[in-house]
Structure formats: structure tokens, C-alpha cells
Design a protein that fits this description.
With 283 residues, this protein is α/β, with parallel strands linked by helices. The chain is built from twelve helices and eight strands. The chain is 44% helix and 14% strand. The radius of gyration is 18 Å and the shape is globular.
């Protein structure tokens, strides 16, 4: 990752699952990485994992609640104390296990009006407002320096539209559309905005535990491993992707046997517009 050494990357929700895999990958590539562990993560366990990965010297864990302005301010201040922030990965999110902890046990879909105010507010603040607030704080510096990367993690397009998955799906749809708008507004600045997703249900602690409880062995086998996010992320933040913005890449569509630029060409679709053009699915 020539040219990026010494710059700082902020990975929100970097304590486990997709966020940890992405944070460790950036650190492994020689980028100092700040992982904002949102509502999860035992520090001793995180430090042990970082040492096992060989990135303990380059990854810096910072606990913060990014639903608040104060939490975002503290995270940005911490990151800037390490150097110039050039990369922001908005991964922190409240997922379906927070919306509907009994999701895989229910025979009928959860209705949107069954969610409490606390759940609705928490999901939108985490999945929509936190990325907006973090980007608003970090993008001006990227624009001033003429280079930067924003990678937003949303979800599968059918999930956004699927009955029973609101407000989670809707909150991720909002971030998807924001990604499209940001990429247009930042055109020509040297700052790119793209979406990276697993492309299917991910083998993260909450989802995997819920499936195990439901004895859904076949569904567990189909989950996307967080490590599949590493290769496409590595390419998205590289100099090879300088002209790529406003795209959506699903990690399970990435072919690691191909040259990374060719793999990206095959896997990428326009962010946001894909949602507008996607037929509603209840599957």
C-alpha cells in the first residue's frame, strides 16, 4: 500500500466481526488504525488478538459511543493525535439481533410498529447519524490535503426492503443513499466514497449466536466470513482506486484469484442507484 504509510485510518465498530477484520487488515498494511469499539469489546482480548495478528504496534483501540456528538469528537481527537486521518470506515452498527433478538425463532415477521422508541432511535443514531457525524468531522481535512477514503458498510439490498427488518434495513438504505450523494459532492477532490458489504449474512457474533440457538446449521454454513472483507477493502483504500467512487462492492462477489482491479471491476455496482433499481424482494 505504497503512499499510505503513516496515515491514520478510523474504523468504527472495530472490536469484533467485520470491523475487527477490516481494522486488522489496514494495520497489517502499515496504516495506523484507530478502532472505535462501540458498545462491545474487551480490551484485554482485543490486545491479545492484535498481538496474535502481529499488528499490536499499529492498532489503537478507543472506546466511544458514536451516537453522540461528544463520542464522535473524542474519537476524532484521538485519531488526530496519531497523525493525519486519511481513511474512514463507517462500520459500527446496530444489527438485526438488536431489532429482533428472536428473529430466527418467530414464525411471522416482526412488524415495524412493534419496535420500541429506544430501538428505533438507537438504530438510526448508530447506522445513519454516526457515519454522517464522523464524515462531517474528517472529510474537510481530507479535501484540504487532496486525498482521502470513505468506506461505508450497509447491507444487502433485499434486506433493506424485506418485511420484518425495519428499522434496520431502512437505516442502512439511508446510508447507502448518503454514500451516493457524498461521492457526487466530493467529485474532483481526491476523496472517494464507496460501499463495502459482505454480500450476505455475515458470521458475526450476534447473528451466529442467534442461528446456533435456532439450530440453523445450514444457514450458519452460508454465512460470509468477516475475513472476506479484507481484500476488497485493501484495494478500495489503495492508490489503484483513486478514480473509483460511488461504487458498491459485495465481498462475496470478490474473486481473490483475479488481479484486484479486475476483481473490483467485476464485483462493483453503482451505490445507491442499485437500490433504486432493485425490485422489492420478500425473500
Amino acid at each position: 500500500m505504497a503512499g499510505q504509510g503513516g496515515r491514520v485510518a478510523v474504523v468504527t465498530g472495530g472490536s469484533r466481526g467485520l470491523g475487527r477484520a477490516m481494522a486488522f487488515e489496514l494495520a497489517r498494511q502499515g496504516i495506523q488504525t484507530v478502532a472505535a469499539a462501540h458498545l462491545a469489546g474487551d480490551r484485554a482480548e482485543l490486545d491479545t488478538a492484535a498481538r496474535a495478528e502481529g499488528v499490536a504496534e499499529r492498532i489503537h483501540f478507543h472506546h466511544a459511543d458514536l451516537r453522540t456528538s461528544a463520542g464522535c469528537d473524542a474519537t476524532v481527537s484521538f485519531a488526530r493525535s496519531l497523525g493525519e486521518v486519511a481513511i474512514l470506515v463507517n462500520n459500527a452498527g446496530l444489527t438485526l439481533t438488536f431489532v429482533a433478538p428472536d428473529l430466527y425463532r418467530r414464525k411471522t415477521p416482526r412488524r415495524f410498529y412493534e419496535s420500541s422508541d429506544e430501538v428505533i432511535r438507537g438504530i438510526y443514531e448508530t447506522n445513519c447519524m454516526a457515519p454522517e457525524m464522523m464524515a462531517a468531522r474528517l472529510v474537510p481535512g481530507m479535501v484540504e490535503r487532496g486525498w482521502g477514503r470513505i468506506v461505508n458498510v450497509t447491507t444487502m439490498l433485499p434486506t433493506m426492503q424485506r418485511p420484518g427488518f425495519c428499522p434496520y434495513g431502512a437505516s442502512k438504505a439511508a446510508l447507502e443513499m448518503s454514500s451516493m450523494v457524498w461521492s457526487r459532492e466530493l467529485e474532483g477532490t481526491g476523496v472517494t466514497v464507496n460501499v463495502l458489504n459482505p454480500g450476505g449474512g455475515a458470521n458475526t457474533p450476534g447473528i451466529a449466536a442467534e442461528l446456533r440457538d435456532a439450530s440453523a446449521r445450514s444457514e450458519i454454513d452460508r454465512l460470509v466470513e468477516p475475513e472476506q472483507m479484507r481484500s476488497p477493502l485493501r484495494w478500495l483504500v489503495s492508490l489503484a482506486a483513486d478514480t473509483v467512487s460511488g461504487q458498491r462492492i459485495d465481498a462475496n462477489a470478490w474473486d481473490p484469484s483475479l488481479d484486484p482491479t479486475e476483481a473490483a471491476r467485476r464485483a462493483a455496482k453503482p451505490a445507491g442507484l442499485s437500490l433504486l433499481e432493485s425490485p422489492c424482494s420478500t425473500g
